[in-house]
Write a structure and sequence with these properties.
Largest sheet: none
Order of helices and strands: HHHHHHHHHHHHHHHHHHHHHHH
Number of strands: 0
Shape: globular
Strand content: under 5%
Number of helices: 23
Radius of gyration: 24 Å
């Protein structure tokens, strides 16, 4: 299925009008040498996505450390840990909704730069935390910054990229977010939790420094009537030898077509409400896969399971597999239909989760000091199950199942749900509809992430009750 869903096509859905085939001279003018500035501007912007991916999984190594903290002000109970892990998603929802206003009020570039303020403040609070409230506030602020950048950066990148590399550069925000998560897992092997927060400040500062020298989006400048600035920005991005007047006129025409807002009566029409309902449902189902709780509590999941490798190493390996999977998915997504990939992706994730669930329920129990159930707390019924041998290859099952889940997610439900938003949503309704999709996505993620640890904590009590025994 290469066309947009629901048969949506034509000028109401074309974000960028098609241009005639360029002449050899035009191809030379928009070659790689002239696009270096575009690559630099893109790199400066997607550092915000790097920080978003880093902040999202910050709790993975930090929660196990704080659950064993000797400081009573920082020692986390299961309920407090669930808030620490999930409050990020509430901040991200607020940040995504704020982007609907800030994108048009400040512009794309300034909105991305503005996100550095809550991000830097949040990392500083967590690095110097002396109580739970500082951890929660810092986590909320980094979530707000992440939601803001996740909504603003793809828009900025798509509006500064030339048509020839727009698809490739459009994949960089997701790739940088995944690379940020991998960096956190890797640094978690080396640094204590406070220094992980300090390290999170570095990409934020570099982003601010580089973006200060980058132009704003030509499309945004045109929408504000700043035609001369828009022409200068486009000329800077394309190179001094490039003829930008044809592209400039196309952007002007595109801005005029999207200037009017959709009315409530139009929103109720099938050609408007059906694509919006499809996009909302896809974002809701994407979160129901459980990807956010898995990423947020990845080390805690391994820590409470009999595994062959140390949980920190397992988390880093999964992070590397996730990055590789996203790279492969970006290169192969157009080779198969969207719908087929969604079904295959869902089947792989189902098989992976079923395998992991069966292993946790019937497999060997962890005996490491960091596990949730120690020998001293086990009943005779628990001891009847086999204990995990440190060298047993059966204990590779959690790692392999999680890797399979991540690969399945990256193949379909991860990237395609974002891609479909640009393919099915009409241009005039895209701003409001995208905000609704962001809200639905992050609120669903909050419910799942907040309930994950309490539900896990209930499992032992239920198993005792089923046997007629109570600890």
């Amino acid at each position: 299925m290469q066309e947009p869903l629901l048969g949506a096509e034509g000028p109401d859905y074309d974000t960028f009008p098609e241009r005639p085939p360029p002449s050899p001279g035009d191809r030379a003018r928009v070659g790689a040498l002239q696009n270096k500035r575009v690559f630099l501007a893109t790199f400066a912007a997607v550092l915000g996505n790097f920080s978003f991916g880093y902040a999202l999984v910050y709790t993975s190594p930090v929660i196990p450390a704080l659950e064993h903290s000797l400081d009573p002000d920082l020692h986390l109970t299961k309920s407090q840990a669930s808030w620490f892990g999930s409050v990020f998603t509430l901040g991200a929802a607020a940040g995504g909704l704020s982007a609907m206003i800030l994108n048009d009020l400040l512009g794309r570039k300034l909105s991305i730069m503005f996100s550095a303020v809550p991000s830097a403040a949040g990392y500083a609070l967590m690095a110097g935390a002396h109580g739970l409230w500082m951890l929660l506030l810092g986590r909320t602020l980094t979530g707000f910054a992440g939601g803001l950048t996740a909504a603003c950066i793809p828009v900025y990148v798509s509006e500064i990229a030339p048509p020839g590399v727009r698809g490739a550069l459009g994949a960089t925000p997701q790739l940088m977010a995944v690379f940020g998560s991998l960096s956190l897992y890797t640094l978690g092997l080396l640094l204590p939790w406070r220094w992980l927060a300090v390290a999170g400040e570095a990409p934020v500062l570099v982003m601010i420094l580089l973006l200060s020298f980058m132009p704003n989006s030509p499309r945004f400048l045109l929408s504000r009537g700043r035609d001369e600035e828009a022409l200068q920005a486009l000329a800077w991005l394309r190179g001094v030898d490039a003829d930008v007047h044809w592209e400039f006129e196309q952007i002007q025409d595109n801005v005029r077509r999207q200037s009017s807002q959709v009315s409530w009566a139009e929103a109720r029409a099938p050609h408007m409400c059906r694509p919006i309902a499809v996009a909302l449902l896809m974002r809701f189902l994407q979160q129901l896969t459980g990807i956010t709780p898995i990423l947020v509590y990845l080390q805690s999941i391994f820590d409470s399971t009999a595994v062959l490798l140390p949980p920190k190493d397992d988390a880093a390996i999964v992070g590397a597999v996730r990055l590789l999977s996203v790279l492969i998915a970006a290169l192969t997504m157009d080779l198969a239909g969207r719908k087929v990939l969604l079904f295959v992706s869902a089947a792989i994730m189902f098989a992976a989760n079923l395998t992991l669930g069966l292993y946790i329920h019937f497999g060997p129990r962890p005996v490491s000091p960091n596990s949730t159930a120690g020998l001293e707390s086990m009943s005779w019924g628990d001891l009847a199950q086999p204990l995990a041998a440190p060298t047993s290859y059966l204990t590779l099952v959690p790692l392999l199942a999680t890797m399979l889940f991540i690969m399945g997610y990256a193949m379909g439900w991860g990237p395609i749900t974002w891609l479909l938003m640009s393919e099915v949503l009409p241009l005039r309704a895209r701003g409001v509809a995208s905000g609704l999709c962001v809200l639905a996505s992050w609120l669903t993620a909050f419910v799942l992430t907040k309930s994950f640890l309490p539900v896990v904590a209930l499992k032992p009590a239920r198993s005792y009750e089923a046997r007629g025994k109570f600890p």
